[in-house]
């Protein structure tokens, strides 16, 4: 895909993102149909499904050779990153959407042959669109944002999901305690997409979580790379875009500092 085709795809996708955002805003005054999936804390609403269906229908109609991975099942069976792939989370932060009508986002990453080329994370309630086209820098609405600088943990705000600080099967929870202690503060927004967007735009310095699906991190992965940050698994390995991963995104420098704390914790296990 050449640059002109990528720009055209970006413009089209952006229009759809705003349309989807308007559909979500409209739904605020109507009663949601809420059910749960695997357990009581795993909510899904009619809007999660409607929005994913909206994108899947348009993409299949306009770009029949493009593939889709989506949380709610309207996408395709995708086993490799060949061709053009849209990775979509129609509503990231469904619990916040249901409980707060805020702190949730539409998250879309578009990859061509495995390379992230376009990303959108749209905070519908605040009308903040974090977006980028590879090589052109990242934007918040119409404002171009500066590249990320390095930082030290003592001056950093770190987003972390509180559940990982309790005994859990994914990580020795004690190894996370020094990160919390040494940082300037911790936050937990309940939406991986916005937490990644906030790292990309510098509102927070790092985000650490133990298990996300491709639709949770795909757009953030592209934004962080474009912003000059680092994104890896919690053990410092490359992220596999087709599988569940732990995710650790941060500014450079800080990434090494936090990884060394995690390695120390792992050694003393
Ligand atoms: C969830 C949110 C949350 C993260 C969960 C995700 P959903 O996505 O990103 O912050 O901790 O692991 O499943 O289900 O609201 O799209
Ligand atoms: Ca979900
Ligand atoms: Ca999600
Ligand atoms: Ca979701």
Describe this structure in a few short sentences:
This protein folds into two domains: 3-144, Fructose-1,6-Bisphosphatase, Chain A, domain 1 (2-Layer Sandwich); 153-267, D-Maltodextrin-Binding Protein, domain 2 (3-Layer(aba) Sandwich), CATH 3.40.190.80. Helices cover 35% and strands 26% of the residues. The chain has seven helices and 14 strands.
SSE topology:
Elements: H1 3-27, E1 34-36, E2 43-45, H2 46-62, E3 67-70, E4 84-92, H3 94-100, E5 105-112, E6 115-123, E7 128-133, E8 138-140, E9 143-144, E10 157-160, H4 177-182, E11 185-187, H5 192-201, E12 206-212, H6 214-227, E13 230-232, E14 245-250, H7 254-267
This protein binds D-MYO-inositol-1-phosphate (IPD) and calcium ion (3 copies).
Residues 48, 71, 89, 91-92, 94 line the site of one calcium ion.
Protein name: inositol-phosphate phosphatase
Catalytic activity: a myo-inositol phosphate + H2O = myo-inositol + phosphate
Enzyme class: hydrolase
């Amino acid at each position: 895909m050449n640059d002109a085709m990528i720009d055209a795809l970006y413009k089209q996708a952006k229009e759809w993102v705003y349309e989807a955002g308007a559909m979500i805003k409209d739904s605020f005054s109507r009663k949601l149909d809420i059910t749960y999936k695997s357990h009581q804390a795993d909510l899904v609403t009619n809007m999660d499904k409607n929005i994913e269906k909206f994108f899947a229908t348009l993409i299949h109609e306009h770009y029949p050779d493009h593939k889709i991975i989506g949380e709610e099942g309207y996408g395709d069976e995708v086993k490799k990153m060949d061709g053009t792939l849209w990775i979509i989370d129609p509503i990231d932060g469904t619990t916040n959407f249901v409980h707060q009508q805020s702190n949730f986002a539409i998250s879309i990453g578009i990859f061509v042959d495995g390379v992230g080329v376009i990303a959108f994370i749209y905070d519908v309630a605040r009308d903040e669109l974090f977006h980028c086209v590879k090589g052109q820098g990242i934007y918040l609405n119409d404002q171009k944002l500066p590249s990320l600088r390095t930082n030290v943990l003592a001056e950093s705000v770190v987003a972390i999901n509180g559940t990982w600080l309790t005994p859990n099967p994914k990580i020795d929870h004690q190894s996370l305690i020094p990160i919390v202690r040494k940082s300037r503060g911790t936050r937990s927004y309940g939406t991986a997409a916005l937490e990644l967007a906030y790292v990309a735009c510098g509102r927070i310095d790092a985000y650490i979580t133990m298990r996300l699906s491709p639709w949770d991190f795909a757009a953030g992965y592209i934004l962080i790379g474009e912003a000059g940050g680092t994104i890896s698994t919690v053990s410092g390995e490359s992220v596999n875009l087709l599988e569940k991963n732990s995710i650790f995104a941060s500014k450079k420098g800080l990434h090494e500092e936090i990884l060394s704390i995690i390695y120390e914790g792992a050694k003393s296990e």
